[in-house]
From TrEMBL:
Protein name per the record: MmoB/DmpM family protein
SUPFAM superfamilies: Monooxygenase (hydroxylase) regulatory protein
Domain of life, source organism: Bacteria
Family statement: Belongs to the TmoD/XamoD family.
Length: 89
């Protein structure tokens, strides 16, 4: 099974986003560097707007991820409610 990942800047704005991603993806692993947080997952990774909103207590537009996005790996499927990374098999 192929691994997908997303790497975000390590800052206060991404902390609740990272917590939400890890809560929704129990198989994900995290690597923290001084300026970057990389989240790897086998097969697929789902980022849910509702989970981020639960963490922040405020409305969140998934397009806001791009402000702190460093890189990602995988095919991207995106709606207003979810961003999914996966590899086609």
């Amino acid at each position: 099974m192929s691994t997908v990942f997303i790497a975000l800047q390590a800052n206060e704005a991404t902390r609740p986003i990272i917590d939400a991603i890890l809560a929704d993806n129990p198989d994900a692993t995290i690597k923290r560097d001084p300026a970057m947080v990389k989240i790897n997952a086998p097969g697929h990774l789902v980022i849910r707007r509702s989970s981020i909103e639960e963490q922040t207590g405020a409305h969140f537009d998934l397009q806001e991820l791009q402000v702190n996005l460093i890189t990602l790996s995988g095919n991207v499927e995106e709606t207003e409610d979810e961003l999914t990374l996966h590899w086609n098999n």
